[in-house]
Amino acid sequence: MSRCCIYCRIGGTANEPNQIAMNSQLEMLRKAAEDLGLTVVAEVTVFESGTDLQRQSIKTLIRDGKHGVYDCVLIVDPSSFPLLNRTLKHSFQYLYLRLAVEKALVDKFHINTDQNSQLGQIISAAFPDDNDIEQIRSRIRLTSKKTLINEFNHFEGNLSIFQPAIDITDHALSTERANLMSFIESLQEGEQHEQDEI
Questions:
Q1: Which ranges of the chain does DSSP label H, i.e. alpha helix?
Q2: Helix H or strand E segment including 10
Q3: Do the strands 151-153 and 160-162 form a parallel or antiparallel pair, or are they unpaired?
Q4: Cβ atoms of 5 and 69 closer than 8 Å
Q5: In this predicted model, what pLDDT tens digit does every residue of 29-85 receive, in sequence order?
Q6: 125: buried, middle or exposed (CB in 10 Å: 19+, 13-18, 0-12)?
């Protein structure tokens, strides 16, 4: 049985959405190795740009290959499936942002998720006062985000389906992510300030 090295690279930092994408790559390549009858003897996971061909991770792959540590290297080639690659990256980020916002709101405002199961309901429960301009702004800020509210009810019943928008640019997604993370931090800081006063 041939020995292989799994090589996974994500451009960017090791933040939570990128960690999720990395784990997805690893699982996909482990399954591919199993299907191909390969024995995985090494796994290399790096968070770095792919433009530098002289980067250390590539040098290490070449060195170990020359020394017979493994017979082949398995990689995911995003250029073969650019739309799929982009959609998966965006989907992981959407999911992370949705869960982060949901958790922050549920924790901060003690929202009953049995009564408010959809994110739109959770946002409305967190900011219910139609006479408070700040609550209205917060509600609009969250419900206007493509990464958060992109739900529709299935026509055959009351089934809520979340479908990430694939028409958002990387730049717009990055801006939206920064905006939402800032919002979550401000919620958490407000909670910390309240605890400090007690």
A1: 16-36, 56-66, 82-109, 119-126, 133-143, 170-197
A2: strand 3-10
A3: antiparallel
A4: yes
A5: 999 899 889 999 999 999 988 777 678 888 888 888 877 898 888 888 767 667 666
A6: middle
